[in-house]
Design brief:
178 residues, alpha+beta, 4 helices
Length: 178
């Protein structure tokens, strides 16, 4: 006989389309449902080299400074530069926060974005002892979105978090021409 337990989810209001917070019986020993992976495929009309992604990669645990240390930042920036020169990606902007990073990046048509980012995260984790969360967030910039607006949003992240007063004072930024 399978035992049933009742789970009550409490917390924030659920977003549209999220599972109900009603009590549901769950059989002991059964796996919880897995999150669906969102497709990273480009639409057929998009040219990979011209598509820019806004990517966020988070550390675990959140709230712990793993990235904003001089030697770690140098290692990350060197790995980004190396992969840029190798043609794995075209990073236009990368900003480190203590527990996550943001980047604006394009990928060549012969490179798979999830694979490129995953391999880079693995390299950084092994060589710089960074503990990353399992996946990453990506958003393809649409034609109506301004690259400059996204860059300003990223560059002002340390100001919004109260880490500095002026965006130009943040030293954990990598750009190809810097």
């Amino acid at each position: 006989m399978i035992e049933a337990v009742t789970i009550k989810v409490v917390g924030r209001a659920r977003p549209p389309g999220a599972p109900s917070t009603d009590r549901r019986p769950v059989a002991i020993g059964t796996a919880l449902p897995k999150r669906k992976m969102l497709p990273h495929d480009l639409p057929s009309w998009a040219h990979p080299e011209t598509v820019i992604f806004f990517i966020t990669v988070c550390c675990t645990p959140r709230g712990e400074n793993q990235l904003c240390k001089a030697e770690v930042a140098t290692g990350i920036f060197e790995s980004v530069s190396f992969r840029q020169s190798r043609g794995d990606w075209w990073v236009q902007l990368l900003l480190l926060m203590p527990d996550h990073l943001h980047m604006l990046v394009s990928f060549p048509s012969d490179k798979d974005m999830p694979t490129v980012v995953s391999q880079w995260k693995e390299f950084v984790a092994k060589n710089l002892s960074i503990r990353w969360q399992q996946n990453f967030f990506d958003h393809r910039l649409r034609t109506d979105e301004s690259l400059r607006d996204k860059a300003d949003y990223i560059l002002n992240n340390p100001v919004r978090r109260g880490l500095i007063a002026r965006a130009e004072d943040w030293s954990y930024v990598w750009m190809p021409d810097r």
